[in-house]
Amino acid sequence: MLDQFDALLLARIQFGFTVAFHFLFPAVTIGLASYLAVLNFMWLWRRDEAYLQLWKFWVKPFAIVFAMGVVSGITMSYQFGTNWSVFSDRAGPVIGPLMAYEVLTAFFLEAGFLGIMLFGRDRVGETLHMIACLMVAVGTAISASWILSVNSWMHTPAGYTVSADGQYLPADWWAIIFNPSFLHRFAHTVTAAYLTTAFIVGGVGAWQLLRGRGANRAVKTMFSMAMWMAAIVTPVQIFLGDSHGLNTLEYQPVKVMAMEGHYQDHPEGAPLVLFGIPNDAERRVDYAVEIPKLSSLILTHSLDGPLKGLESVPEEDWPPVAIVFFAFRVMVGLGFLMLGVGVWSLWARWRGTLYTNTWLHRAAMVMGPSGLVAVLAGWITTEVGRQPYTVYGVLRTADSVSPVAAPAVGASLIAYIVIYFVVFGSGVWYVLRLLRQTPGPAEDDASDEPGPIRTAGITPTAQVAGRSAFKGGPAE
User: Fold this and answer.
1) How buried is 273 (Cβ within 10 angstroms: 0-12 exposed, 13-18 middle, 19+ buried)?
2) Which residues contact 320 (CB under 8 A, 6 or more apart)?
3) Residue 327 falls inside a structural domain
4) pTM of the predicted model, to two decimals?
5) Residue 467 domain boundaries
6) Which long-range contacts (CB under 8 A, 24 or more apart) does 188-191 make?
7) Structure confidence by residue, pLDDT tens digits, 35-91
8) 398 and 463 both lie in a single domain
9) Based on the structure, what is the number of domains in the chain?
């Protein structure tokens, strides 16, 4: 049966499936790592038990999601050798060192301090533990920067030369790393991760409030912090998205044509298509709901700004228009819903009903997973919009695939689907179970419990007896 499918299509589906799974985990851990660092800092500064309770509540889901992100990233990277060996051979001299730098700097930094962050609160002192929290948060951001540099180079390649055998060789590392779309993509993606975390935290806090746990100060603090992030960061993200869109128009105009649904040229101003159904055969958007000239105003800052359409490009260079068109609208629509929740929370805060407005809580709970859907829609818009190229304008996807048979790719795809849903499904289920709990009182200091004996000459019996005597126990 698998012989009926094309190996290229199956390889694309497999990579899309695995990277979609993987992308969701860092989207959470990047934001959660910073959130945990802020919570720890607030606890050390104010000595408010609510912050410590929240840190202990969120650190377990963070650890599990972090582990799932590492595992999913490793399995995804193998496909560069199995399904995309031609791409790896051609582009390896450029992207290989960048991915190695991510491991040598960011991943080792995270791994080195993660254990101290998770288990060292009562063992290494408050200062070193705070440094560990910061290093893990910084490590996640550095990791994102290297990976997004690789991805951005594939969209806007720069700083390379081509060898006689067709390999892309680095000529200017600064131009490669800081390629034309890198800073825009980095700012937009990392901010999306922070928003994703904010709405997950806000959704959990809203659920706790709806369950009648409003008397818990930690729950109220959780919800309040998340709503501040929603109100402040969402407008910033919309601005960053607009900036990224203008950069895409400059370097990947065909992607913008697909996003906007512009089949025809618009020399005197293009409409903004709010909704419709792209029709490639007729080169139009059926049932289109449009606002005249608004697309030109957004993209050129002029109502009469001319915009090219897909008709100006050979059809073999078009991306899958319908996928890009709808994914872009899902991302933008969710962004404005996030903005609405943020503004609503400001109104409720001003009215003094932030913790009692059940309709706001219901909305925040429903919007809890919205960040995950939005980042996935944004990734689809970006990556499918790059087609039919792996390295935009340079290397086509059809020329990047390994010489493998469709049944081999299909069999591994089926294995990935089964294993991913079993392993990561179990992990997500356990995280959801953890989030059903309520942040409770801080646990007793670990130093009050019998533990490993580190000092020569002291036996466990003597140590326990000494502690019992100090506490007025049996040794008295």
Assistant:
1) buried
2) 258, 384, 387
3) no
4) 0.87
5) 449-476
6) 188/237, 188/240, 188/241, 188/243, 188/244, 188/378, 189/144, 189/148, 189/375, 190/30, 190/141, 190/144, 191/233, 191/236, 191/237, 191/240
7) 999 999 998 998 888 899 999 999 999 999 988 888 888 887 788 888 888 998 999
8) no
9) 2
